[in-house]
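User: Second chain of the day. Same drill as before.
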Amino acid sequence: MRHRVSGRRLGRTTAHRKALGRNLLRALLINHRITTTLAKAKEYRPMADKLVTIGKTDTPANRVRAMAIVPDRTLVEHLFGEVAKHFKERKGGYTRVLRLAKNRLGDNGEQAILEFVGLARVKTESA
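Assistant: Same format as last time:
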């Protein structure tokens, strides 16, 4: 029984879950929108929101905190530059999870889109 147990294991070990989270957040920062399973999107949405909150105040300590989550210097620069400036006036709710109508063909897994609010449309229009 999983009474009062928080978080999802996602069928992975702890190290694998951490690596998965870093890779999903890295892809979200690069593309501003990712398609993944519903469980993964729900699990890593708060981490993405916290990352944007860290990026809104540009201090050396916050840059170290962001590097601990996403160890890529260029992505941290992108976070503190473009992404944080876009959400400067917004108080929260930087990401959204949209369920997709069709499930994945191989295993019938529920699919979802995890995207930054307002930023995904700007990215796709310019691309």
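The first helix runs from residue 14 to 31.

User: Great, on to the next one.
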